[in-house]
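Two proteins were folded this term; both appear here.
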Amino acid sequence: MSLPVSDQLLEQLMEEDVPYGDLTTDILGIGAMRGKIVFTTREPTVLCSTEEAAAMLQKYGAVIRHVTPSGEHLRAGVDFLEAEGTAASLHAGWRLSLNLMEYMSGIATRTRKILDIAKEINPDISIATTRKSYPGLKKLAVKAVECGGARPHRLGLSESVLIFRHHLVFFGDMENLCADIGRIRREAPSMKLTIEVEDETAALQAARAGFDIIQVDKMECAVLTGLVKKVRAENPAVMVAAAGGITEANAAEYAATGAEILVLSSVFFGKPSDIGVRIFPL
């Protein structure tokens, strides 16, 4: 699982939320009073970013009494993060910590649901998420995905080779690209070569050329099932990744096609987890 994010990112988030202090707490005159804050699941939740939430509360001056690690799958009604401190420290960290945990736990929970659905059909299948995470919060999004039991498809442009049709246009056609695969492999001999295709002809050309992974975009499951068999007949070593529009609603159907990998971005978009907060004086 990913390590907690940097202090720099946490301080940036804190600066956005409390740039000039907490006016309400100040004018009420309660800032120095002691209190306790407790975060509780309101629904089954895969936790994420509890470490970051605790770190921010500490930065505001609170003392952490209990924190459940990210990645834990909890039922509704479980207290998982507790802190004590002044009312000023608790109110400064309350909403920011809650927002962070609700959004990231939402991603982690959706990821776990899709993973469980797909593995029920194919225990060996892998779930991989795209680069369509929130700009500026990639480290947190990657952590959420890993808490849900999946892995990022690629972290960025620097560490993987994935050829899209936007690259292919500069070769003229698929035949020219496949003819150059020897040189391409020599340029990155330790990496798998992945190409995204949209039809059977291109998929079979890629299989014959020796690509390691063929990513099939937006193909109906019935058609993809037949294509997977044809690709295997051409090249048994190639892996097939299904991509495009995969959600909790159709993950089982895609898992049944025979593809080894489901590539998706749907986990990044949806309802945040429902987390309750109680603050009371000590």
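Next, the second protein.
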Amino acid sequence: MKAAVLQEMGRPRPYADSKPLVIEDVALEPPGPGEVLLRIKATGLCHSDLSVINGDRPRPTPMVLGHEAAGEVVECGDGVSDLRPGDQVVLAFVPSCGACVPCMEGRPGLCEPAAKANLAGTLLSGAKRLSRTSESLYHHLGVSAFAEYAVISRRSAIKVDSSLPAKEAALFGCAVMTGVGAVVNTAKVPAGCTVAVVGLGGVGLCALLAANAVGAVNIIAVDTNPAKLSVAATLGAARTVLAGPEAVAEVRDLTGGGVDFAFEMASSVPALKLAYDVTRRGGTTVTASLPHPTHQLSISPTQLVAEERTLKGSYVGSCVPARDIPRYIALYQQGKLPVNKLLSETVSLQELNEAFDRLADGKSIRQVMMVG
């Protein structure tokens, strides 16, 4: 099959010239026990992929990237009896073992074996099913969907309505899970609360849509890109604020002292500090972004205590994918979560390098690679 292989991290921009992703012929082994072979139909381009390309999120290489995807079941390995060829699935980039303490607590996004496998670049079983000539290739988050086919753990696959267009279904595997889940699961935003969203990529705009859906009021969108602020205004933001030296004062003025909930989705420590600073006394700041692991945030413990602030991380939107992805799809199909409005354009496997330039430049919200 054809796949996009990242040979090394940190190649210079523009990627159209340095070509960090090389389209190659790759061998894919059949699915093992508890695994599934998929034909990839659509894969979203996410900042988490970009963070591996530019080295902000170190991973072993060579690796086949891509983690926000929808596909069609082709073959099931031994022990997989609840899927059949032709089923459409959305892929969860953290498979759940079901047996570790976080999984048993209903927090599969924190699955311990999955975290180890994802960091090592393997499937949940520890296997690698990708290779070229005699060299094995690493899997990205157990998915590796910048390819024509993928072998994944059954625990990475969520069966969904086959009538849902694949380019829309793919978004539910990361952008929707992460952004909507941060609002609904991590923060549990009540109706009538004020919300700020800092960083208006696909995940941030999904958080904005979710805040609107749960009945938040005076939703404020913050970004450095005026074009994204314009998009946010069409998706339910009551006010938009250009990130900069005056942004904190502006948000505080608009909300009488700060918002009840602030969400940071920009993968930037300054953005997280801005989100923390626009949160009112007693309020909650949630971050779902992943800047370089060496970057640090400095806050005042006195302020944290005396103002009873909450600063929370949100990974995979604190979701239970098998429960939440069908729920979010149902909300979309009812017109209450119009995530299709986030689609920028579709690209081919051969156009990925140029598409990641657009993502890095903030010129797109959610591009989707279509196969076939």
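The longest strand covers residues 35-44. Residues 175-187 form the longest helix (13 residues). These notes refer to the second protein only.
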